[in-house]
Model the fold of this input.
Amino acid sequence: DVHAGLESTLTILGYKLKSGVSILRDYDRSLPPLSAYGSELNQVWTNLIDNAIDAMGGQGQLSIRTAQDGASAQIEIADNGPGIPSEIQSRIFEPFFTTKGAGSGLGLDIAYRIVVGRHHGAISVSSEPGNTRFQVRLPLDPNHHS
Done:
């Protein structure tokens, strides 16, 4: 259940949300459960949501949307922070690439490997100031690669 995973991630990161992040949920409750590695997907949600909170400096709006798109589940995590500069957007999924002074730069690389390598899905980003969106697409049928 993608929604249970997202909610447990929000609970775990709750201490970071208290400083002024509002959460807008737009869940498609008709989304069927996925055949997936749940704890690995929770790592993806944790990386994406944690990055969004950091990007907003703990102040802003986090939007989480789920939808069914054909044979895929689509999960979108968006923030209204300053955005990712266009010149580095193509590199953010590379191992060890980081925009933060501290950190391994492995969060998005790990997310990419889990989504693409382990689940045969896709992960992408679109970003401009005030609107950064990470989209994760996961096949509903694990035997049907999207």
Observations:
- The chain is about 35% helix and 25% strand.
- The mean pLDDT is 90.
- The longest helix spans residues 38-55.
